[in-house]
Automatic annotation (TrEMBL):
Name this protein carries in UniProt: ThiF family adenylyltransferase
Record keywords, A-Z: Nucleotidyltransferase, Transferase
Highest taxon in the source lineage: Bacteria
SUPFAM superfamilies, per the entry: Activating enzymes of the ubiquitin-like proteins
Organismal lineage: Bacteria, Bacillati, Actinomycetota, Actinomycetes, Micromonosporales
Residues covered by the THIF-type NAD/FAD binding fold domain: 109-331
GO molecular function, one term: nucleotidyltransferase activity
InterPro entries referenced in this protein's UniProt entry, alphabetically: ThiF/MoeB/HesA (IPR045886), ThiF_NAD_FAD-bd (IPR000594), Ubiquitin-activating_enz (IPR035985)
Organism, scientific name: Micromonospora solifontis
Length: 348
């Protein structure tokens, strides 16, 4: 690093009535306790315009200070955009900055954005959850998006479907998505599958080779989750979902085949429904919250920022009345359908 600099998105500051120097904000901010004025000048001046030799001439402790800053990951050791096209790096610069909070030797947020750009994600179901998931994935720059559905939009979808406007009422959901998504991001390839899911085989055919599968359908109730679980296992495709019912809301569990417990391990419960609900109790804000959390998890996995995430093998339940967040962790269940898959999975 001939001309060291701090990562440009990190704030350097003092807090009122404190002498400590802080780099970055949030839970991972770095605190330098009681720095000397020279150290403060050194840190603030690390903008890439001075060479190490020039810094040494001015600050005798340069090597120790650089070593310490490198150790906490605040120095920028990436040249330019690391091979990412300049227009992509510019458009998704803030997202890349977030990914760069996970930089490590051999991987940076620039590579992460390229992986997102190369990824293929399939969303099955384009109700409130599916359309919002697609909107966020499209905004994030996922290169290849696919959606599966057969239905049309109704007027009562408008409050909960973030992608829609009034002109879409009565139209086929996939046609509306074909219109909206390119207006948001013309660089993403969108493929629509107009079909009804009738088996795990149908799903496996659609998601085979995909980098991620988002389950966003609930019919038929007694089979939908089981089919998605089996298709994910058969194809090795990571899987997650969101759901909301009355005052309850859920993200996950995210299933990484062969790595985390599957949905059968978590428990797919059958229902003896005596009276079907005629409609749903749901707000668009709840859907947006769940979809935002889920897509953040998906992007961390697609990009390579993290090998597993908070909802990997766990579900997040949100009580939307009390805003209570509860995580439930699942264990592998002996004799589960995923046991053979784990046994046959090649060692990493």
């Amino acid at each position: 690093m001939s001309n060291p600099r701090l990562k440009p998105f990190l704030r350097v500051y003092h807090r009122q009535d404190e002498k400590h120097l802080f780099i970055g904000v949030g839970p991972d901010k770095v605190r330098i306790a009681d720095p000397t004025p020279e150290m403060v000048d050194f840190v603030v001046g690390l903008d890439g315009t001075s060479s190490v030799e020039q810094l040494r001439a001015k600050y005798p402790d340069t090597d120790d200070w650089l070593r310490g800053l490198a150790g906490v990951g605040v120095l920028d050791d990436v040249e330019g955009t690391a091979g990412l096209p300049a227009d992509i790096a510019d458009r998704w610069s803030r997202q890349i900055n977030y990914l760069r909070l996970f930089d490590r030797p051999g991987w940076s947020g620039f590579e992460g954005q390229q992986r997102i750009r190369d990824a293929r994600v399939v969303v099955v179901g384009t109700g409130a959850g599916g359309t919002t998931l697609l909107r966020l994935l499209n905004a994030a720059g996922v290169g290849h998006l696919e959606a599966v559905d057969f239905d049309t939009f109704a007027v009562d979808n408008l409050p909960t479907h973030a992608t829609l406007d009034e002109a879409d009422v009565g139209l086929h959901k996939l046609e509306s998505l074909r219109r909206h998504l390119p207006l948001q991001n013309s660089l993403t390839t969108f493929t629509a599958h107009d079909r009804t899911i009738r088996s795990a085989d149908d799903l496996a055919e659609l998601i085979d080779g995909a980098d991620f599968f988002l389950h966003a359908f609930d019919r038929p109730r007694e089979f939908a989750a089981t089919w998605s679980n089996l298709a994910s296992l058969r194809t090795g495709t990571p899987l997650t979902s969101i759901g909301a019912t009355d005052k309850g809301a859920r993200v996950g569990p995210t299933m990484l085949p062969g790595v985390t417990p599957c949905w059968e391990c978590a428990g797919i419960y059958g229902f003896d429904i005596l009276r079907h609900e005629q409609t749903a109790a749901l707000t668009g804000s709840t859907v947006a919250m769940l979809a935002g959390i889920a897509v953040n998890e998906v992007l961390q996995l697609l990009s390579g920022a993290k090998p597993t995430t908070r909802t990997s093998g766990q579900s997040l339940y949100v009580n939307t009345d009390t805003l209570t967040f509860t995580f439930t962790e699942y264990q592998f269940r002996p004799g589960c359908v995923c046991e053979q898959y784990r046994r046959d999975r090649p060692a990493a």
